[in-house]
Amino acid sequence: KRLPPGSLGFPIIGQSLSMLRAMKANKAEEWLQERVRKYGPISKLNLFGTPTVFLHGPAANKFIYTCSEKLMANKQPASIRRIIGERNILELSGDDHRRVRAALVSFLKPETLKQYVGRIDEEIRFHLKNHWYGNNEIKVMPLMKSLTFNVICSLLFGIERGPRRDTLVKLFEEAMEGVLSVPINFPFTVFNGSLKASEKIKSIIMELIHDKREKLEKNGVSSNEDLIMSLLSMKDETSDSHVLSDDEIVDNIFVVMVAGHDTTSILLTFLIKLLADNPTVYNLVLKEQEEISRGKALGELLAWEDLAKMKYTWKVAMESLRINPPVFCSFRTVLQDIEYGEYIIPKGWQVIWASCMTHMDENIYSEPTKFNPLRLESQATSPPPYSFMAFGGGPRMCPGYEFARIETLTMIHNLVNAFAWKLSLKDNFFGRNPMPVFHQGLPVQIQLKKSSDAIQIYQF
Ligand code: HEM
């Protein structure tokens, strides 16, 4: 058995800068395709200070998602670990991972979230009134980021609108800049700036924990009012001790901030673009959403049951995720030498794979660059297992799927019912940092629909 083909490049830096440059120029898929052409579906390289093996294809996806925890752990690159924290779910494995995941899922599961659909709808209407109503043009990407951040602040962290939220937004952007960087902590480096922002974010979360604990003790009852309250209320049935330590709550609230807001904002941004580019799809989505509005009183908020009727709209969202998955690549760390085909992946190395590569494989999806929401519906063309990777897979599959679905469907329902829009620019260039970023924010010209419903709901 031997090492996979490829070069490890220069020590520490390896191919990191070359890959980051390709990501910034939105050429990362081509960069990876070039590797596959040169070396095949498995090759070695050096990323973010660690020797790495890149794997490609559904068989590789299956291998990673079903691999024993004894062979592969979910350790992230050092930059992510140091910014978010050692006890965040992405770093944990075995019983620790199951315990923290179960605690998060007990709030993120449909049975809990279904009662919050109306609250998310309210936050979205507030956003539309404040940022869309009365304007002729808006920039979609920054607005979607602020919307999804506000939704998680309200629902998951119970942070009221105001200075604390505003400070968090700014710090959060600074922290995110260095999540994929060479982890050298010199003054004025991006990584150094991100570490400083991360410290401030953590002290804000710690303050929140103290405030909420006081509130819980005063009331003397457990609470599902928001995710932090829910985590603080959780006790082990046998020992009566808290399920998560304060440090674990801080690191995992941080990870939910990262995982929960950027991803959905990117999905919404691409959806708005795809709907502008595809009038037929926009009209079909509108038809589905108008049908739902007809069954409701004027101004009545959406409920869980309404979301089940938005089947076509969700297919459109899934097709958007196939073409533009927000999470570009994922990492695991090898704990023992692993044999993969004719190669060996040594202990201590990283494994990396990229969903976009599988999603754009024409052997799986015919005409992969074509936006076709119905392709995920038909039995004949539905993708084989481990071929749709936007939410990951296996025991680490995204636990925020339902939250993202509620938020996305509720926003699209409100948008198509109230507004028509078209892209302001012909070219809307985006790069990855590591999430996609539209350089000009995706400006669109918008028009409030003339219907009396839209005017009554979305005007002040
Ligand atoms: C469109 C929206 C979203 C997408 C595309 C997405 C994608 C993903 C992917 C691909 C993974 C797995 C990464 C891996 O295997 O290494 C993941 C994990 C995760 N996601 Fe999401 N996500 C989304 C929304 C959310 C939301 C809204 C939340 C929370 C409110 C969330 C919380 C998490 C957490 C905590 C994990 C780690 C799970 C674990 O390690 O057990 N995500 N997500």
Automatic annotation (TrEMBL):
GO molecular function, one term: oxidoreductase activity, acting on paired donors, with incorporation or reduction of molecular oxygen, reduced flavin or flavoprotein as one donor, and incorporation of one atom of oxygen
Compartments, record wording: Membrane
Pfam families reported in the protein's UniProt record: p450
Transmembrane parts of this sequence: none
Keywords noted in UniProt: Heme, Iron, Membrane, Metal-binding, Monooxygenase, Oxidoreductase, Signal, Transmembrane, Transmembrane helix
Cofactors: heme
PROSITE patterns linked to this entry: CYTOCHROME_P450
Bilayer topology annotation: Single-pass membrane protein
InterPro entries to which the protein is assigned, alphabetical: Cyt_P450, Cyt_P450_CS, Cyt_P450_E_grp-I, Cyt_P450_sf
Sites where the protein binds heme: C398
A single GO cellular-component term on record: membrane
Family recorded in the similarity comment: Belongs to the cytochrome P450 family.
PANTHER family with a match to the protein in the record: CYTOCHROME P450 26, OS07G0520300 PROTEIN
Protein name as annotated: Cytochrome
Native organism: Forsythia ovata
